[in-house]
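User: Predict Phosphatase PAP2 family protein's structure from this.
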Amino acid sequence: MLPALVHRPSRSRALFAPLVRPARQEAVPLVAVAVFALVVLIGTTAGDFTFAHREFDPIILLLLAVWGCAQACSRLSVRQGLVDLCKLVPVFLATALFAPLASAVLARISAPLADASLAALDRQMFPAFSWPDTIAALAAHPALLHALSYTYFSLGGQAIALLLVLALTGQARQGWAFLTAWCGTLLVTIALFPLMPAVGSYAYHAISHAAMPDVLSLSAWNYPHVLGQLRDGSMTVLDGQALEGLVTMPSFHAAAAVLLGWGYARIPRLRWPMIAWNTVMWLSAVPIGGHYLVDVLAGTALAAAAIALVERFFPPSPVPAGVIA
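Assistant:
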């Protein structure tokens, strides 16, 4: 009897085992969060930056609490869809927090601005395309710019809504597949950013927001200033201002549009409306995000590669009968 008692795992140990042994499907998203957090930790411990603990610590603690409770509840009689939701969403939100902070740290050591090279690539690959002329033509269509702005804003909300639907309809595996592709793409995007930093087409072509007042997002005009302050060392606090998206090449908005279209394709009733919506979001990366065309192509290629890898190693499970069909 004694050996059996010694080797039998305790109830509490079995309950909390998932906390220390994450499932294979969760590995890439958790590694991505860890890598981004490590970059932030290195930047702050090296003395280059100060972390805004008062601003971010409550958020981090809340995400950890929800994640921990979900892991513990996975062994209890709790509705599985709710447990899956409380695992997926905190990981996504942690990525959304630490990825831009990591890019802010990497901006300090980034290479010279690549705008001239990116603009030259646009001219070589698309000789009939003129960024300033295209923007000037769009300025005459405020309703179109408003529509493009709203789709551009929808990136984060779309991702959370997708994870919610997948979790609550028994498709958590597909939710983790989506997060794996999302986080893998984001890891590569952030890794490439310091090699090719850029202020974007609006700043490069000296087009002010006053010339494009119907672009409802100010990000394309705000982030060049943040990037400049990070690069010259005048910005040293990692706070809410550091959450400004800094990456131009590759365009993560373009990548996200492809990933979200792929993710929603698993939900029959939402498939075509969301593919259409994300096609518009993909197009919005140029006039709203201020991206070069090569940025959009690079982001699209990254997302397509991530999807191919995820589908190879994590083939999708059948859609449960009657799920939003």
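The longest strand covers residues 50-51.
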